[in-house]
Structure formats: C-alpha cells, structure tokens
Amino acid sequence: MGRLSDSERKAIIEKMRAVESQHAQAGVSASSRIICHNCGHARPLRGAVRYDRYRLCNDCALRYELALAEGDVKTIEDFVLALGIRPEEPESEPQSRSLLARLRKRLGF
Ligand SMILES: [Zn+2]
C-alpha cells in the first residue's frame, strides 16, 4: 500500500463516487440491494460495479480499484478469491479451479 500518490488515489475515489451518482441519475432505486461477491453483505445497487462475473458493492469496488492500481492484485479473481467470498457457481468455470490451485500453492496449503 501507499505506492499511489494522493492525487492518484483521489482520482480513483472520485471515479467510484461518480458511478454511484450516475446510477442515481439513471433512476436506480436507493432501496435496491445486491449481495456483494466480495464482502457478502447486502449493499446498495447504486454504485455497485460488475467485473466479469463478480458484482461488488461500491466500497469493495473502490478497494479493488485501489489494489489493482497499486499492483496488489492483477485480476478481479485474485481480489475476490484472496480477500472475499466466492460467487455461487465457481465450479462451472474450469479456470477458477486452476486459479484456486495457484492460490493454494501461493499460500502453501
Ligand atoms: Zn462489498
């Protein structure tokens, strides 16, 4: 952490806030909720972002964008598999198996 400059960090935060206001302007209900694939909580649909087959709440999307920008993760799978919960049907994707194997190898179990 801390490899981003303050202005780079601020730009990412602004970008993710903008998603939320775009959703509000597009008429997305403030009471609509999604289950975030990263934190597992019911969070507002406003500001939620879909990456590949994962849907993240605004807070997690911000953390992902920051981790990505800092080079801590390379893909959404790295982020979700390393830090969060997995989506409903990971078995349907053979790719997730090898990712999991890679992660296991990295973590040593
Ligand atoms: Zn979340």
Bound molecules: zinc ion
Q: In which range does the helix fraction lie?
A: 40-55%
Strand content: 5-15%
Instruction: Give the strand line-up of the largest sheet.
Output: 1-2
Unreliable stretches? 89-94
Order of helices and strands: HEEEEHHH
Based on secondary structure, the structural category is mainly alpha
Rg, Cα atoms, Å:
15 Å
Largest sheet geometry: 2 strands, antiparallel
Explain what the structure shows:
The chain has 109 residues and is mainly α. It has one domain (6-107). Helices cover 50% and strands 11% of the residues. The chain contains 4 helices and 4 strands. The protein has helices spanning 6-25, 58-70, 76-83, 94-107, and strands at 33-35, 42-44, 49-51, 54-56. Helix 1 (6-25) packs antiparallel against helix 2 (58-70) and helix 3 crosses helix 4. The longest helix is centred in the N-terminal third of the chain and has 20 residues, at 6-25. The two termini are 25 Å apart. Bound molecules: zinc ion. Zinc ion binds next to helix 2.
Question: How is this fold's topology laid out?
Answer:
Blueprint: H1 6-25, E1 33-35, E2 42-44, E3 49-51, E4 54-56, H2 58-70, H3 76-83, H4 94-107
Helix pairs in contact: 1-2, 3-4
Bound molecules: zinc ion.
Features:
single chain; 109 residues; mainly alpha; two-stranded antiparallel ribbon; binds zinc ion
Short overview:
The chain has 109 residues and is mainly alpha-helical.
